[in-house]
Design a protein that fits this description.
The structure is a single chain. With 84 residues, the chain is α+β, with helices and mostly antiparallel strands. The protein has 2 helices and 5 strands, in the order βααββββ. The chain has helices at 9-21, 25-41, and strands at residues 4-7, 48-49, 54-59, 62-69, 74-81. Strands 1-5-4-3-2 form a 5-stranded mixed beta sheet. The radius of gyration is 12 Å and the shape is globular.
């Protein structure tokens, strides 16, 4: 079964700022699409734990913090940034 991936409004706004400032907009958009697809399929096998229910995933040129809610089959992207 698939999970539904939702980006919190603050994460969406950060992604928009990253994309707007990027010289590699296609790479940023493709990474965001890959993040959505990978988290929708099997979020527990993606990234690594950062304590509690928060996980981190790097899909260059982006990184995200996310939380999985199994009861609702939801994944929430909480934060996005460009790792150095």
């Amino acid at each position: 079964m698939k999970y539904t991936v939702l980006w919190k409004p603050t994460a969406e706004a950060d992604l928009a700022r990253i994309w707007t400032a990027a010289t590699d907009r296609n790479a940023v958009a493709a990474a965001a699409d890959r993040i959505d697809a990978l988290l929708a399929r099997d979020p527990h096998s993606r990234g690594e734990s950062r304590g509690g229910s928060i996980r981190i995933m790097v899909e260059l040129p982006l990184a995200v913090h996310f939380r999985v809610q199994d009861a609702d089959r939801m994944v929430y992207v909480l934060k996005v940034w460009r790792p150095r």
